[in-house]
From TrEMBL:
This is Hydrogenase maturation protease. It holds the Pfam family HycI. Coiled coil: none annotated. GO terms for molecular function: peptidase activity. It comes from the Bacteria.
Length: 147
């Protein structure tokens, strides 16, 4: 299993995926790899290729409300392309991965709705709470896989 946090800490809530990975350090079993990425599709495919399970966490544009957590099946189209500095969405990387045969056995995506994507550091309070929620979900998933 690999968990990939996507984002940029210098664009406020866009750092949500990176914050989840930081929060997971020391909480997951040792066989869970933790990685970060700026969202570049080839890098994502290299990180998740061959994994039995890849979990990707990224910030998404607001649709339901700041801090709302989406799972892959309900991700809004265009995820974060309008507000994120990495510009290409995880769904595009997954489509390219399918075409090129570079996909994990299972891919799960968590999108955390952000509200503040301007320059600066630090997450908004609703996104900070969502980071903890997603880290808890991933910790439970990683522990359930072992039993």
């Amino acid at each position: 299993m690999i968990v990939i946090g996507v984002g940029n800490d210098l664009r406020r809530d866009d750092g949500a995926g990176l914050a989840v990975v930081r929060e997971l350090r020391g909480r997951c079993p040792p066989d869970v790899r933790l990685a970060t990425c700026d969202g570049e599709p080839v890098q994502l495919m290299e990180l998740w290729n061959g994994a039995d399970l890849a979990v990707v966490v990224d910030a998404v544009s607001p649709a339901s409300g700041p801090g709302h957590v989406h799972e892959a099946a309900e991700l809004p189209t265009g995820t974060h392309a309008d507000t994120s500095c990495h510009g290409l969405s995880v769904d595009l990387a997954a489509e390219l991965g399918r075409i090129l045969g570079r996909m994990p056995g299972d891919l799960r995506v968590y999108g955390i709705e952000g509200v503040e994507f301007g320059f600066g550091s630090g997450l908004s309070p609703p996104v900070r709470r969502a980071v903890t929620e997603v880290a808890d979900r991933i910790t439970a998933l990683a522990c359930d896989r072992r039993s």
